[in-house]
Amino acid sequence: MTTEASVEAAAMGDASGRPLLVARAVTKAFEGLIANRDIDFEIPRHSIVSIIGPNGAGKTTFFNQLSGVYHPTSGTIVFEGTDISHTPPHEVAGLGVARTYQNIRLFQNMTVLANVMVGRHVRMHGQWYGAIARMAGIRAEEAEAERRAFGLLELVGLARSTSSELARNLPYGDQRRLEVARALASDPKLLLLDEPTAGMNPGETKQMTDFIARLQRDLQLTVLLIEHDMKVVMGVSERITVLDYGEKIAEGTPAEIRANPRVIEAYLGKQATA
Ligand SMILES: Nc1ncnc2c1ncn2[C@@H]1O[C@H](COP(=O)(O)OP(=O)(O)OP(=O)(O)O)[C@@H](O)[C@H]1O
Ligand SMILES: [Mg+2]
């Protein structure tokens, strides 16, 4: 497994009790449209936190800022004490933030195993600056990456026999799992999952939900989830933040959110699965 670093961090403890990530007054404007307005948000270490809200509420936009894909128009995002508000995505990944995408973004014409190994890349030292003298070290690093990649495929429940398939030939649910394996390959502290159960059948959804809980429980990961399936959200989240028209309208435990009239009005009332 690839989480020695996070387990070690957990063992060292976080005496400060500081959240892993803190967003303050984050606003993102796209020309005329305010997609996120003044959002304050924290993710405690080793927690599972969810963001819910209607289509277009600004959930993915917020994720894109946490992972460096977009930068806030104003406000700050601090990850483990480092201000990442204007940090490019590969550097944010290097600091320990990994994500999956709402619309699957695998390398469709690469093998399953290669897709996972690409995810490892932010942690490998790369070849471009390596002198020949370093080649042996790089090969060892790649062998180790391959070993870990197989471990991750197993962890997410993909058969070893799929490793040489092209990603595009996997069924949809397996592609979602592969995305998670690729994200985990970078050995993140924080895993951002954008609708990981979208398009899954109830059996696959249940499996994914259990898997997310295991990531946090067994691997000490911190998980931030965007999800429309309320069974998933209410089942795994410690805290839930609700966005509507780009604003945070509520935050609390699943029980608090379920009973919040404003949330029911804006979102839950319209959910068949609520
Ligand atoms: N790059 C962009 N340029 C212009 N507008 C954008 C951009 N990205 C998002 N938006 C707009 O910002 C708003 C929030 O979109 P976002 O994708 O964050 O919503 P969401 O809550 O993730 O919705 P969904 O549940 O449908 O995935 C929408 O009105 C969207 O059209
Ligand atoms: Mg979205």
Give a summary of the structure in a few sentences.
The protein is of the alpha/beta class. 38% of the residues lie in helices and 22% in strands.
Attribute tags:
10 helices; four-stranded antiparallel sheet; binds adenosine-5'-triphosphate; 10 strands
Protein model, in words:
The chain has helices at residues 4-12, 59-66, 89-95, 112-120, 135-155, 172-184, 202-219, 230-236, 254-258, 261-266; strands at residues 21-30, 33-43, 48-52, 74-79, 82-83, 97-99, 190-194, 222-226, 239-244, 247-252. With 274 residues, the protein is an alpha/beta fold. The strands form 2 sheets. Strands 6-7-8-3-9-10 form a 6-stranded mixed sheet, sandwiched between helices. Strands 2-1-4-5 form a 4-stranded antiparallel sheet, covered by helices on one side. β7 (190-194), α7 and β8 form a beta-alpha-beta unit. α4 runs parallel beside α6. It is globular and about 55 Å long. The chain starts with a helix and ends in an 8-residue tail after the last helix. The relative contact order is 0.18. The structure holds adenosine-5'-triphosphate and magnesium ion (MG).
